[in-house]
């Protein structure tokens, strides 16, 4: 896609509406077929994402013809073939300042990328305005990461980058009908937790034209998540929609494809083989887990010790439905402001039905927590996770529910270095002992909303101290942290990443709220 200067200027202003592509661009697995499978099967690169982020030096047809002629078989032969025919992504550099706040401010330019008109042979998607990437192996903009990155950008006066990233997301919705997991062709079959409405709320723009364009994008995103509604009414669940026992429609995570992920092909094939279950079903569950952002967690597993028991699409998640309420409420509010009374009534009604269903089905009063609903057992799952705080963050919990959640969090999820993700050690990265920046913010902001200021401050200061401690020892801002031992986190499919967008954003925003020096907490 060629992006002219005029196109870029219009898109950056949010004034250009694009028609959704009839045929989305093909992913590396689709473009390179047998070569792709050989490279991933032989694990030519330690990280499966390296190959799918490479840029081809020639057309796919020419590369596949060369592959057929040369017939590389061994790992070394395949690596040499890829080196001749592709440009591999570079690892970004990182510098260090004398104090944590200065270090975070210094990272914004390093993680900022200019408007992107990707070259032929790249899996990247075009973007009209500058944007911020997470860092490390994550070389593209990611959906839910960006909200938490924006929190820090706002504190540091980088409203220009917030506006640019919003323009990029509007552009993606215009072209593809939704905001993908990340801006790569291989991410187009799924989204991520829908934070776009909250991102729009961080904008300082008073442009009526931008307001209209963003409202249109919000409504398009809602339509994407609710696309299976009619089918779900008949079947009980369809695409991202689930019919609850009383007929209310809630949402689940999903993916439009049921094949191994391009970026984790070898891992998915191995997991499906181990499961002895239908491979296509396994791939759908794994992909849906990736859409959740919690890839992976005991939240999605029948047996917490085995990823092969994953069943993401059988779960109605509390975080997703809290965010869907936020989306519906934002649309109702913006329609009301624009004088569209019918739209405002419609979405206000949808939001109220969802709020009531969350309280009815996703609340466990005996345990004082919100949780995920299991479609098979027809009750809240036994997993206590930091997602229990999402209804507080959204503002849809009752005062009594919020007080009960706060007590549960203090008793079970609060750790020396911040908030635990779950109570279970599984080796998956979204389980104990890891803590994640976005979950700290959700907790702190949600608790403050309900007057639980002391617990909010405790979580925030412990987290700041954990991040600062690791930064002084390693010189890096990390993707995740061990909140029990107060050290860098671990687990999951890939090595610990540094950079790191959402850690920078959340930590900077918490420091702005509570100050530095929180590291003494939890000593």
Give a structural overview.
- The protein is mostly helical and 523 residues long.
- It has a three-stranded antiparallel β-sheet.
- It is built from 20 helices and 17 strands.
- α7 packs antiparallel against α8, α14 (318-337) runs antiparallel to α15 and α19 (453-474) packs across α20 (501-514).
SSE order and pairing:
Layout: H1 5-12, H2 28-41, H3 49-52, E1 55-56, H4 60-70, H5 75-85, E2 86-87, H6 100-111, E3 112-113, E4 131-132, H7 143-155, H8 159-176, H9 196-200, H10 208-225, H11 229-235, E5 237-238, E6 241-243, E7 249-251, H12 265-275, H13 279-292, E8 315-316, H14 318-337, H15 341-361, E9 363-364, E10 369-370, E11 373-374, E12 379-380, H16 390-394, H17 399-413, E13 414-415, E14 418-419, E15 434-435, H18 437-449, H19 453-474, E16 481-482, E17 487-488, H20 501-514
Antiparallel strand pairs: 1-2, 3-4, 5-6, 6-7, 8-11, 9-10, 11-12, 13-14, 15-16, 16-17
Helix pairs in contact: 2-4, 6-20, 7-8, 7-20, 8-10, 10-14, 12-13, 14-15, 18-19, 18-20, 19-20
């Amino acid at each position: 896609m060629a992006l002219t200067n005029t196109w870029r200027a219009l898109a950056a202003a949010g004034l250009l509406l694009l028609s959704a592509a009839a045929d989305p661009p093909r992913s590396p697995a689709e473009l390179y077929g047998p070569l792709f499978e050989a490279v991933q099967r032989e694990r030519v690169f330690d990280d499966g994402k390296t190959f799918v982020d490479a840029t081809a030096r020639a057309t796919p047809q020419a590369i596949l013809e060369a592959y057929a002629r040369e017939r590389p078989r061994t790992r070394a032969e395949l690596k040499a073939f890829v080196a001749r025919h592709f440009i591999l992504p570079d690892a970004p550099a990182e510098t260090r300042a004398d104090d944590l706040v200065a270090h975070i401010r210094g990272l914004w330019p390093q993680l900022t990328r200019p408007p992107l008109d990707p070259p032929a042979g790249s899996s990247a998607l075009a973007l009209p305005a500058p944007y911020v990437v997470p860092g490390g192996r994550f070389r593209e903009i990611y959906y839910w990461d960006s909200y938490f990155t924006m929190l820090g950008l706002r504190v540091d006066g980088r409203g220009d980058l917030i506006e640019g990233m919003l323009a990029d997301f509007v552009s993606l919705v215009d072209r593809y009908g939704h905001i993908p997991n990340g801006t790569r062709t291989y991410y187009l079959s799924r989204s991520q937790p829908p934070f776009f409405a909250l991102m729009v709320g961080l904008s300082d723009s008073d442009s009526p034209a931008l307001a209209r364009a963003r409202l249109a994008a919000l409504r398009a995103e809602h339509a994407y998540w609710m696309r299976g509604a009619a089918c779900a009414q008949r079947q009980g669940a369809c695409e991202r929609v689930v019919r609850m026992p009383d007929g209310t429609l809630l949402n689940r995570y999903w993916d439009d494809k049921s094949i191994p992920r391009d970026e984790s092909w070898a891992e998915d094939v191995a997991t499906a083989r181990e499961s002895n279950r239908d491979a296509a079903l396994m791939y759908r569950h794994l992909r849906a887990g990736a859409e959740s952002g919690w890839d992976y967690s005991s939240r999605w597993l029948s047996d917490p010790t085995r990823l092969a028991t994953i069943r993401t699409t059988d779960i109605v998640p509390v975080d997703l439905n809290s965010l869907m309420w936020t989306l519906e409420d934002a649309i109702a509010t913006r329609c009301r402001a624009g004088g569209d009374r019918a739209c405002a009534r419609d979405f206000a009604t949808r939001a109220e039905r969802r709020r009531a269903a969350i309280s009815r089905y996703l609340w466990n009063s005996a345990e004082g927590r919100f949780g995920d609903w299991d479609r098979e057992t027809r009750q809240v799952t036994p997993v206590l996770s930091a997602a229990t705080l999402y209804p507080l963050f959204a503002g849809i919990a009752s005062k009594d529910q919020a007080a009960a959640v706060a007590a549960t969090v203090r008793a079970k999820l609060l750790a020396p270095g911040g908030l635990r993700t779950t109570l279970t050690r599984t080796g998956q990265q979204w389980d104990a002992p890891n803590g994640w920046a976005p979950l700290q913010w959700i907790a702190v902001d949600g608790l403050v909303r309900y007057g639980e200021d002391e617990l909010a401050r405790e979580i925030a200061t412990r987290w700041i101290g954990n991040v600062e401690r690791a930064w002084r020892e390693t010189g890096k801002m990390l993707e995740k942290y061990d909140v029990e031992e107060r050290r860098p986190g671990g687990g999951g499919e890939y090595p610990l990443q540094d950079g790191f967008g959402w850690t920078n954003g959340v930590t900077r925003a918490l420091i702005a709220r509570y100050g530095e020096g929180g590291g003494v907490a939890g000593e």
